[in-house]
Amino acid sequence: MDILPLLCAVAVSFTGLTRGVGVLPDGPLNAAVGGTVMFTTTVTPSETPFLVVQWKFGYNNIITFNINNITAPEYESRITLFMSTGSLELRNLALNDSGEYSVGILPPGEVQKDGRTSLVVHEKVSNITVTASSTDLVESSSSVRLSCSSIGSSLSFLWINGSSEVTASDRVQLTDGGSTLTMNVTRYDQGPFSCRVSNLVSHATSDQIHLTISYGPENMNLILYPTQKYHEKGSDISMVCSADSSPAAHFTWLLNGDLQSGTEQVLNLTNIQESQSGNYSCRASNSKTLRNETSQPSVVSILVKISDASITWKTNQSIEGKSFNLSCDAAGSVFNREWRKGDVGLTPDDNMALYDKNRVLSFNSLSKKDTGDYFCKVSNPLSQDEVKYTMVVSYGPENVQIKGPSSVQLKETLTLTCSADSLPAAYIWMLNGTKIHNSSVLTKDNIEHSHHGDYICEVMNHITGRRSSASHTVSVTEKSKCSDGCIAGIVIAVLAVCAVLCGGGYMFYTKNRNLTKKLTVRDPPTEAGAEGQDNNAYAGTQEVKYADISIFQKANGGTVHLVSQSNSSDYAEIRVNNKASSASTNDAHLQRMKKPAPQPHPEPTQLYAHVQKK
After folding, report:
1. Considering the entire predicted model, what is its pTM?
2. 548 is in which domain, residue-wise?
3. What pLDDT is recorded for position 443?
């Protein structure tokens, strides 16, 4: 068989090849410079060798396989043809290997199979460099431009801040295909920043770049140790100031707006004094941002411990009806004063007031009920002290009274007691205008007649300057010779006899009156009888009767024995009619009694009783 006609037929067939028909995958295929690409067909491997296999790059022959193999010189040692599938491997790729590749395969007894695809050869990413317009920046007032450059083809750029991807925003711009990053920096943009470059065949990341972002000071905070508002004089305190700042802030301290000597973040105050009380604040400065910030003030109050509490008053005396003031004072830092009487707190009313921050307790008009113990408690947040004042309200005198007998017998004891509503009280006794005693109780033994009269008790109050008095009349009497029992017996006997005789006398008087009507009127008595006594009037049948009473019956059935130390007899006269006994009888009776003769009584009856003392 002549080979020439066959070759011509194959040549004609390849000249008309335009696209693959499932023999090669769709392109483009991507490969790197210096790399290898495999053009793999979709032809099923055949046990019978293909009659013809031909690869072309554009219109240029790469390799033709038939009875004789023809390989273009530039592909010598760069290609490998796989006869079972017609696939082609191309090595040591160069950028000029990019383009369109085609293949024609003629299996035995079959129609020719064609394929077409493209190859893009890329240069690998390398030599990535990142540059910054500045790395020392100030927040909110500076911007930075980061540029990324790299060797390679078809490059893509991605910026990374730490581990996060940087995306475009209001303050971030990405330009030049993403290779340039421009932003207004904040404190969170310090990095590290890196640039990741890639293409279809390779990728690489740049070295990291750090930005220094200065910011602050801000968010000032002042802490006081110990964390309390009030501190005792002589104690130690510390203050710590902090601020968000980069670089670290420089601190200064102020007291009530005046600059202090401390320049550190911590201010230590030892043995602190009252003069160091006030509003403390710290000021932070940033040399990069040129900004200053001052903290809110912290109040430090240095207090002196409360001691030596006392209550004083302007006048020496507290007198009923007078005004009176008590003043409460103490050494130290006084914050509060509280008054109480006993256990009850005092509140102002119509008669009592508190003023000068409760320092003065004022009474408009004192009364007895204001007497008592008053307490003043002086305090501050760190200490307290309390003092007591005992108020005694002086009053009186008034309601002066004298208690005691109004009559006293000779040689007995007289006791008079004087009382008055008065505090304090001094007593003076006077008898008939003469001072005789100076205490509330007057006692006199062996009373004499000269001790009778008006007893005056004068009560004086040397604090109120007032005085008042009362009087009491006392009479002095002699003792009776008859004992108390004797007197009682006489009284009882006389009453008993009188009861009996009065009844009889009344009957006698009635009979005698009837008789008198029958008689003529008698002559009046002689002048002598009238001048002395008409003793003849007692002549006749009328006699003097005597009764001896030594025992008598009591109402409850008992008896009373009248006993006397002497045997002398006392007599009592009882008139039974208007007739007189003889003068001799009466004279003898008077002689025995050693008493003047009794005078005739106008009543018609007379009775004499003899009480014998045994």
Report:
1. 0.53
2. 484-516+533-612
3. 94
